[in-house]
Sequence to fold (329 residues):
Amino acid sequence: MGKLRGFMEYDRLKEPVIAPEERIQDYKEFTVAPKNEELQEQGGRCMDCGVPFCHSGCPLGNLIPDFNDAVHKNEWEKALGILHSTNNFPEFTGRLCPAPCEEACVLGIINPPVSIELIEKYIVERGFSEGWIKAQPPTHRTGKTVAVIGSGPAGLAAAQQLNRAGHTVTVFERDNKIGGLLRYGIPDFKMEKNVIDRRLEVLKAEGIEFKCNVEVGKTISAEELEDAFDAVVICTGASIKRSLPIPGADLKGVVQAMDFLPHNNKAVDGQHKLQAQFHAKDRNVIVIGGGDTGSDCIGTSNRQGAKSVTNFEIMPKPEEGRTEENPWP
Fold:
């Protein structure tokens, strides 16, 4: 444990952001990197609990107290190794994960929890900037071939793990670029697409083959894949749209988020111009749903120049903190 009473000495740091009136002028990420010393202090807030509940909150089982301690001690390359031991792509989760680890942080019972996601993001950013993140091709090949269907986070992680085990991996993507919902479902102001591209360069250097514009079931049959490969991994994303079972859900002017966001992302990428039906400029917009997808639609509508944006959320307004009656997440 790097700082015995760090949680008492240092306040929680929220990632600095650019002012709203400035950031809605473009689609770039609007966060500002904290200073190295500030991140070290945040690592020092970790209490290194005897039973770290942040582990139970993390679906990946990240070794959070370990990399917090390494960051506090300014041992960034060590922290990167710890983080990569459980997480293939912390540059994705450090930007997009809802951070259930922070909800499970014991410090959060009485104080703001440790800024785990912030620390995670800047560990991997330091790794890329220092050149520590390099291709790790397998030392031998098994002779087995694997097809991975889908190039979202699950497909990319499966491909990397299988490739490092020595299998020859080919990833099939139905769209024109690799990334799945990471590329076309997540707006650039949340994660710019060069973040995906730099990781793809590492994966390609490790020996993974990527094929775009291939839709299994149309371009190629499942039977053809079974014949050509020893194994097939299905990693298709959650792209099926859900409509509201109410009158008027199909009226003109009503669009689905999974049509709106990919269309706008491709326009930002320069692949086409925005169609009128997906352009919010000078319109009064209602976004139904207050989750991450809803917030992405709100941010996109504002950047398109919407006259007004109103959000409808079915759930009650969440509490600002934990109540004394319910101290655990």
Observations:
- The mean pLDDT is 95.
- The chain has three domains: 6-130, 145-234, 240-329.
- The first helix runs from residue 6 to 9.
